[in-house]
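Task 17 of the worksheet. Students: predict the tertiary structure of the chain below and write it out as structure tokens. Keep your answer in the requested format; marks are given for formatting as well as content.
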Amino acid sequence: MNDQEKIRDIGSSMLAEAAKTAEQEFGSFYLSRFLGFKITYKNDNCFVNFRSKLPMFNPQGTLHGGIIATAMDVSMGHLLHYTTGSGATLEMNVKYLLPIKEEDVVCKGSYLKQGKTIEFLQSHMYRSDGKLAAYASATWIPLNKNS
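Model answer:
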């Protein structure tokens, strides 16, 4: 099987997984299912684990920066929702450090500072070898604080 056929097969299975349900909730929304994100929480952190796959790669053969930014945004947004309530990203700054091939990846979202009206979060993405591949910081506005 050539790379084109592999991409088509893997892409089809990603699409089938995403389409299993119409659910659009935190922890399981269409895009997160499509990308294979597994979202967990521990000690005021949100973890987004997934396997980078060929259909997610750029033409250079590494994980596309947009997928990296999306995973980090999800880790921060889900943490905010989990601790405070829904919010919106006001700005996000991403630094790409190392390429990511076909491997297991984890993002760890955490707080930098919780304010009265604005929240500051960060996310670190690690490759399967444990090396930091990218990091982001973002400013969020809560839409409906739980407290």
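Marker's comment: The longest strand covers residues 104-114. The mean pLDDT is 92.
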